[in-house]
Design goal:
By secondary structure, the protein is of the alpha+beta class. Helix content is 27%, strand content 33%. It starts with a helix and ends with a strand.
């Protein structure tokens, strides 16, 4: 008898031993600490280091998660862009509180972020949209994100219609598309350690300043 798939999954494990995360060695501001870690992640060959899990929930309280791409780190938050009519856009309209999670396995690191999400100004959204490749701009117009389509063919036909519509023209930013910024209320940095005694340092806002506490793994 061979091993079951369940047994195979249960046996998956690895030791973490690349680094440590101590209170004396971190920045006092979580955005500075994130920028340092992100820069180190960029130096690796890990694909899509700016990929992050975005978790939202609407007024029904049911959570949903998906991978989106980080498109900017400011002193006050994390930027991303999407279709306002998508499920995440609708949920953020109903409940502006959300969470992000980055995982960089090559560095044995994870960052968890919670906070409130705000729409970027129209000017900021347009400035980013203008930088996008033409194909991506057309895709934004062709896709009614999260809505049902009858077939792949319908989606490709929509794309062709947009190609014809904007042939030899600049492609404007759709009214239904734009950016958000998540302004954090807490940021947790996780560093894998041996024996599952991982380091977890959490920054949280109190009295209008950042404080740090260690969490048990």
């Amino acid at each position: 008898m061979g091993t079951s798939r369940k047994d195979d999954i249960e046996s998956i494990r690895r030791e973490y031993d690349r680094a440590e995360l101590l209170e004396d060695n971190v920045a006092s501001d979580p955005m500075d600490q994130f920028s340092e870690w992100f820069s180190q992640a960029l130096e690796t060959e890990f694909m899509e280091v700016n990929a992050m899990t975005l978790s939202t929930s609407g007024k029904d309280g049911k959570p949903s998660s998906r991978i989106v791409l980080l498109k900017g780190v400011e002193k006050d938050g994390f930027r991303f862009f999407t279709n306002y009519g998508s499920r995440k856009g609708q949920e953020l309209e109903e409940n502006p509180h959300a969470a992000l999670c980055f995982f960089w396995p090559v560095l044995e690191r994870q960052v968890r972020i919670e906070g409130q999400v705000f729409k970027l100004s129209r000017e900021e959204s347009q400035a980013y949209f203008e930088q996008r490749p033409r194909q991506s701009k057309l895709g934004a117009w062709a896709s009614y994100q999260s809505q049902t389509v009858e077939s792949r063919q319908e989606l490709e036909e929509n794309f062709t219609k947009m190609e014809n519509r904007f042939d030899n023209q600049e492609i404007p930013t759709p009214e239904f598309w734009g950016g958000y910024i998540l302004k954090p209320s807490s940021v947790e940095f996780w560093q894998g350690r041996q024996g599952r005694l991982h380091d977890r340092l959490k920054y949280f806002r109190a009295d209008d300043q950042w404080n740090i506490k260690r969490l048990s793994p």
